[in-house]
Amino acid sequence: MSQSDRYIEEVMRLVVATREERERFAADLRAHFEEGLSRNQTTAELIFKLGTAEAVAEAFNAERPLAYAGFWRRLAAFFADISIFVLAAIPVVMTVVAMEAHAINDKVGVALMLLCALAIFGLSLTYFPLLEARFGKTLGKQLMRIRVIEENGRPLQLRQAVIRRLSFYFDLLAVDAIFIPFTPKKQRALDILAKTVVIEEPGEEVPAWAWAAGLFGWLAIVLVIVTVALPYL
Amino acid sequence: MAQNEPFDREIKRGTLELLLLRLVRERRSYGYELSSDLSERSGGWIDLKEGTLYPVLYRLEDQGLIAAEWDPPARGVPRKYYRITAKGRKRLDELTESWKTWVRVVNTVLDGTAEGGEQ
């Protein structure tokens, strides 16, 4: 992959746009590079004159109104992410079952459970901020076709991803989500503090199965775990 | 050049549409050429990042002020040419008129205060 391709890919990652708009912009940037190269300019010179991918994407995003994601779509995305933590509980349940069946001795079992608890704790601290800072979205947000960005259209910084997650760290019910229906940009209280917004990916529909998986996936996983594990306990 | 002042940025943002419409009225042109023309004809004063020009062109295109067409790739490098539409000409006349009025009025105010203005 050439330097110009990487540049274009980075711009496309940062813009909030439909597929058609992306294709139009990418084609124009490619033509821009070809034109410049045919005039004996280097790719580095051309990129310098184009501006950083962040600046170019910001200019693009500033031209169009953002569609802020509403409460239910974000709740479905959040539940989908919680499903991952529920999945992470499976090893814990398996350990308990193994201990009950005396397949492993209690010391090993307790050590395993501590290890699992530590892993889940680590995951819960890092999962949201790291994914949001790197990709603008978690797996749940990808499922529901939404993304976190700065209020001004730029990709958010790790610092902001951590700030907007503080409610989760201190209060699992995320009570600050009740702000969403009542604020003009549909922000949680900590979104306002972090200067972030959650937007819908333009031109992308959320399929019915994604809604179902998002809202009820965690419940299905819990039911399966309980059903499988119950006979052994 | 001191163009990071919010003042300069606002002026640039406000006049870019006018300048681009003017350039494509003279002759059909493509993104790369438009950005170098802007820089050249302003004596280097307007040195915007070229990548930020395209979103403005899209806005003008989506408003029907300019129209785009890819050149048949007979030559080596493919180019997307923009030309002005009838609607774009009308808009250009309006903006030009408006700009000239602003310049005149602002100059009048500035000249008045510069002379003391106690007449």
Description:
The complex is a heterodimer of chains A (233) and B (119). By secondary structure, chain A is mainly alpha-helical. Chain A has 12 helices and 2 strands. Chain A has 2 domains: 3-62, no CATH class; 71-232, no CATH class. Helix content of chain A is 66%, strand content 4%. Chain B has helices spanning 6-26, 31-41, 53-62, 86-114, and strands at 29-30, 66-70, 80-84. Chain B has a single domain, classed as Orthogonal Bundle (Arc Repressor Mutant, subunit A). Chain B is globular. Chain B contains 4 helices and 3 strands, in the order αβααββα. Chain A binds chain B through residues 11, 21, 24-25, 27-29, 31-32, 34-36, 38, 49-51, 55-56, 59-60, 62-63, and chain B through 30-32, 35, 49-52, 54-56, 58-59, 76-80.
Overall helicity of chain A: 55-70%
Radius of gyration of chain B: 17 Å
Silhouette of chain A: elongated
- Terminal Cα separation of chain A, in Å? 55 Å
* Largest interface: chains, residues each: A-B, 22 and 18 residues
Coarse structural class of chain A: mainly alpha
Q: Beta-sheet strand percentage of chain B?
A: 5-15%
Main structural class of chain B: mainly alpha
What is the H level of CATH, i.e. the homologous superfamily of chain B? Answer: Winged helix-like DNA-binding domain superfamily/Winged helix DNA-binding domain
The main sheet of chain B comes to: 3 strands, antiparallel
Radius of gyration of chain A: 22 Å
- H/E element sequence of chain A: HHHHHHHHEHHHEH
Q: Spans of chain B with pLDDT under 50 lasting ≥5 residues?
A: none
Structural domains of chain B: how many:
1
Indicate the mean pLDDT of chain B. Answer: 88
Strand numbers in spatial order across the main sheet of chain B: 1-3-2
The CATH topology of chain B comes to Arc Repressor Mutant, subunit A
Helix count of chain A equals: 12
